[in-house]
């Protein structure tokens, strides 16, 4: 085998390290499958003095990623450094130079995907991003290629490993939020700034990418209604469990009345739903397609080698195409669609109120719900005296009405505070 495809790595941290490990360990099979040897030629990192264990000469390392992009001895760019502006400029430049790009950068793809796809199309080279969504799980390729003949109605996913890991340990072990977050960081699941994980932004980016592919349109990260898990408490988890639910950070995308409804937030999910059994840093994506029916894609959602596996798969794909001067399947965005405001969502809600422990409180609270057309399905009191709380589960209600209810509850004297509001997803999700 004398053909060599030379790779330029932009970044060699958690994911880049996983990529290097896999390329070295599986070298023979990868060479046979690709029809060429894949060789890391150059690497950009911030700290060029650190030993990365790649067996490369010191001159292969640089702290200037554009040197890697411009290098004549680099055929394919692997962007695993993260961030937006710098990574975006580097990718655009690589495409301009006719170099295929593989990236794990969901933040960038979710904010600038359509522009980057257009740049790749104009240059006639591949831009592949399987690792940007759900770590090791093959989902981009199945949606772009395997399901290309079908019609996707809905995508529901657990799209963030860090938050699923945190919620699992909080509910199964009663572990404290801060402790499990630092474990998730130590295990390489979390983003450099974990706010993107716990605040829901990372899952929102992935949900935007999936919604775009599912509905042949352009959905950007900022189109996704986003709420994180940072306010989920032990009481919420306990109530959910008692009622037969688990709390999961869900990404949900569908088309309702010609508008894309796309949202990421923690929700009560029935324990009987297939996504409820997804534990730890695992992710899963539940796709409802008109002809195929219900499909579930499941696997490790984060970490060095799981994510590295998706990156290397893409590298093999683009390397094969490069050698045949071909291109992989392109994204279709033929259908401009408006985004449905979250206020139009109709679902059930769980509301937890800190209340005065006195006669008439329940009647006052019920009146506020009734005034806003929100019907109560269940209500009970937890605790007494200063720690009295009311737990309410509503029937299906419009989000706009629920929000107005919560605002009014905040101004109701017997309500000391609105402690939690979470959506309760029945089997059918939203309408
Ligand atoms: P990471 O561990 O922080 O690694 C980032 C790498 O990029 C490091 O090697 C760093 O150099 C290098 N780097 C960053 N900025 C640079 C700059 N301006 N110039 C030169 N080198 C630079 O991050 P990661 O977890 O591997 O994530 C990388 C990307 O993959 C992100 O887009 C992330 O969202 C995505 N991703 C991560 C996972 C995961 O499980 N971690 C999963 C899917 C996707 P130093 O090593 O010298 O600091
Ligand atoms: N921080 C991300 C997560 C990495 O926890 O899911 C995988 O994209």
In round numbers, the mean pLDDT is 96
Q: Give Rg in angstroms.
A: 24 Å
Domain count: the total is 3
Termini gap: 56 Å
What's the CATH H-level homologous superfamily of the largest domain?
A: Dihydrodipicolinate Reductase, domain 2
Helix content: 25-40%
Please outline what is shown here.
By secondary structure, the chain is α/β, with parallel strands linked by helices.
Characterize the structure shown.
By secondary structure, the protein is an alpha/beta fold. It has three domains: 3-135 and 304-323, 3-Layer(aba) Sandwich (Rossmann fold); 140-300, Dihydrodipicolinate Reductase, domain 2, CATH 3.30.360; 343-424, ACT domain (Alpha-Beta Plaits), CATH 3.30.70.260. It is built from 14 helices and 17 strands. Strands 7, 8, 9, 10, 11, 12, 13, 14, 15, 16 and 17 form an eleven-stranded mixed β-sheet that branches. Strands 3-2-1-4-5-6 form a six-stranded parallel β-sheet, with helices on both faces. A hairpin with a 2-residue loop joins strand 9 and strand 10 (259-270). Helix 1 (14-25) packs across helix 12, helix 5 (106-123) runs parallel beside helix 10 (201-215) and helix 7 crosses helix 8 (177-186). The longest helix has 20 residues, at 304-323. The N and C termini lie far apart (56 Å). The structure holds NADP nicotinamide-adenine-dinucleotide phosphate and L-homoserine. L-homoserine (HSE) binds at residues 135, 160-162, 189-191, 197, 202, 301-302.
